[in-house]
Amino acid sequence: MKHQTVIVLDFGGQYNQLIARRVRECGVYCEVKPYTVPLEELKGLEPIGFIFTGGPNSVYQEDAPHVDPAVFELGVPVLGICYGCQLMAQALGGQVTAAQDDTAREYGKTATFFDTSCKLFKNLPEQGVSWMSHGDYMEKVPDGFVLAAHSEACPNVAIADEKRGFYGVQYHPEVNHTENGVAMIRNFLYEVCGAAGDWTMGDYKRTAVEAIREKVGGGKVLLALSGGVDSSVCAALLAEAVGRQLTCVFVDHGLMRKNEGDEVQAAFQPWAMNFVRVDAEARFLQKLSGVTDPERKRKIIGEEFIRVFEEEAKKIGAVDFLAQGTIYPDVIESGAGDAAVIKSHHNVGGLPDYVDFKEIIEPLRLLFKDEVRQLGRELGLPEYLVARQPFPGPGLAIRVIGELTKEKLDTLRDADAIYRQEIAAAGLDREVGQYFAVLTNTRSVGVMGDGRSYDYTLALRAVTTTDFMTADWARLPYEALDRISTRIVNEVPGINRIVYDVTSKPPATIEWE
Length: 513
Known about the structure:
- The protein is an alpha/beta fold.
- It has helices at residues 16-25, 39-44, 83-91, 181-192, 201-216, 229-242, 260-267, 281-288, 294-316, 328-333, 369-379, 383-386, 406-425, 478-491, and strands at 5-10, 29-34, 47-52, 78-81, 95-98, 106-114, 127-134, 136-140, 146-151, 158-161, 166-169, 221-225, 246-252, 274-279, 321-323, 359-361, 434-448, 451-464, 472-473, 495-500.
- The protein contains 14 helices and 20 strands.
């Protein structure tokens, strides 16, 4: 089944992925493409609409990103956001200049007034708050366009040429700060582009299973299963498609949270697949003995994971496909033309050099994280795995500050389990973006019963976030913190003091190491 497609054309905007997520949340499939993609390639995707993203440049700069003007001759609707709006205006005969005074520049939440006769604002309030971020000004609007929204400082907050289906907004409808922003995107998709809303996880599951079966044929597939959400959903999808042609190697390095290894193994019992669990805890702890630097920990764990996986792969012999749990943000971030490479992603770093295989298969590479979780539910994975908290690749090794020992890891596992239990019991597990415990390397004096103690300090971390690029420390209720602290100190030997991290990102990171 071929889905209707909207192309998000990226001009270096920080919200490019968020725009795409919003489109998909509206039931319409979309892909993010760099603005450098040739027009013929874009036409080949048969898009029902284009969305131009924001960007850090000014459209009048000589080296600013531009688009092939022929895109406006395709008869396909266009929504320009911020830079994308100004780019469209300039390309179609308007004029964009730097704002001459502070009143023409707009940043942050801004009261905005909308013309609700415009399709973009159909059935929406006439007034609302929009999130502005622009220092340039559309001095002249192109012929054929009308003003569709304004603020006190700016008469052309939104412009529209409804005859051709061209719309531009100087704010960001994709962010939560813009009231009714997603409804505006939905109006563009359904009222302007004529979307059918044919993008659902149920449909994706069926088409993905068929595509995997066709590609794999009678071949063998090998997957390094970490136990995280991405690799687990990847494993379930592959198992659904090819069954015992799939071998999953689960390297249990002894650095996971309490009972997680057993939970991962239990989750895959319903599928007819080859599940290999390697108990490598002693091996990893030996390699990490005496190591305190977090970067060295990461490097050792990554290299040892490869060695263990390599040994297990050799027992299996040649395979046709090496599977990876790459997801769409990885694909976008690993290279989007002039939009800059944010970071290179190698989900199974180094493995292609060590494993005898013919081709890599990445069945989740079109999905965002929230869609991966939805797919996991469609496949029947248990909620404890699908909704699993983000977990760093090195596991608890970077949540134990300083030297690692099995005793310290077990202490942290017990404390972290209590923390997670109480967060869930308080109904906070869906409100908090990420929460975990850190065993610090600090010991302090305490009183336990009638005696003096000299034990470790445990730090609790909880943040709220939508994208994990920024995060605010979570304002957990004092009652919940009190229960957590009391239980941990009473039930977990070796800990006599609890502290709560009240630092946001930035300046801190979410993880401690």
